[in-house]
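Re: the request from the purification team.
They wanted to know what the chain is likely to look like in 3D before they choose a buffer screen. I agreed to run a prediction and write the result into the notebook, where they can find it.
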Amino acid sequence: MKTIQKTIIIMNKKELRKFALAKRKELTYNKDELIKDILKVINGKNIAVYYPMKDEIDLLALKEYGFNLLFPRVNGNDMDFYKDVTLFKKSNFNVLEPINGTKVSKDEIDFMLVPALVINKDLYRIGYGKGYYDRYIKDRNYKAYGVCYEKLYLDFIPEEHDQKLDGVIICKQ
């Protein structure tokens, strides 16, 4: 009989963030399959997304399906979403944020696709560590799904301030 050993590596959120950023550079995904998976769960017309950074999962193709894409902009310790955006500018975080468009209320959001470095089986995410999305989705009346690479669907223990998502879209290689 052959014995198989399984190695378990325990990392804190900071270490997982660093691991995920490095691992993500090696990963690819099928954009058409991703969009098909998203279309199966998405509802409504006003979809909160993000402008993808390097190696981040790109959701901009959703515009071709008639959705109104809403983009985030950080304002101090808060984040707001904007519709009818045509111009973007790099923020202090190196993220492209809208510099025009109309600010929307949370009630105008029908569905949100949340960026994630890592998502666990209990639907908690690890982002970039500033807590903007956790604060924004804390009180919501729309579904918020994380978008994550299959190889970064990992286990970790969430912290008290982490907000649970309603679902996850896994990007398969």
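For the purification team: The longest helix spans residues 13-24.
Please add any questions underneath this entry.
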